[in-house]
Amino acid sequence: MGYGFIYSMGKEGDVQQQPISQEWIARIPLFMEYRNISSIFWWLKDWNGDEASLSEHQKGAIASAVNLVQNDLTFEGCRFKL
Questions:
Q1: Angle formed at CA 19 by CA 77 and CA 37, multiple of 5 degrees
Q2: Taking Cα atoms as reference points, which of 25, 27, 30 lies closest to residue 9?
Q3: What is d(CA 66, CA 82) in angstroms, rounded to the nearest whole number?
Q4: pLDDT digits over 23-80, tens only?
Q5: What is the three-state SS of 4-68?
Q6: DSSP label at 80?
Q7: pLDDT value at position 61?
Q8: Which of 1, 30, 60, 82 lies in the 20 to 30 Å Cα band around 12?
């Protein structure tokens, strides 16, 4: 089923040239969860602790990232099933 995702992304040649084991395909959801959590820290890396100092864009991005993590969702554009 994971290969279906790769094929649907138009990567047929990549799979033929560099076969991907089921073990690595099974790790994709873990990577995506890590990416969601990391994005929160990226947005907060220069934050001084004063919520009023965040722009509306930053507040929205952080709220969105927190929502993804809390609801066990993937980031936009990467919704698929293995």
A1: 35
A2: 25
A3: 24
A4: 888 888 888 888 878 878 887 888 888 989 888 988 888 888 888 888 877 666 565 5
A5: HHHHHCCCHHHHHHCCCCHHHHHCHHHHHHHHHHHHHHHHHCCCCCCHHHCCHHHHHHHHHHHHH
A6: -
A7: 83
A8: 30
Q: What dihedral angle (degrees, nearest 10) is formed by the CA atoms of 9, 6, 18, 74? A: 100
Q: Which two tokens mark 67?
A: 């929502």
Cα-Cα-Cα-Cα torsion 18, 23, 26, 28, nearest 10 degrees, comes to -50
pLDDT tens by residue, 8-21: 555 555 556 777 78
Per the listing, tokens 């959801």 go with 29
Residues in contact with 75: Cβ distance below 8 Å, sequence separation at least 6, in sequence order: 32, 35, 36, 39, 68
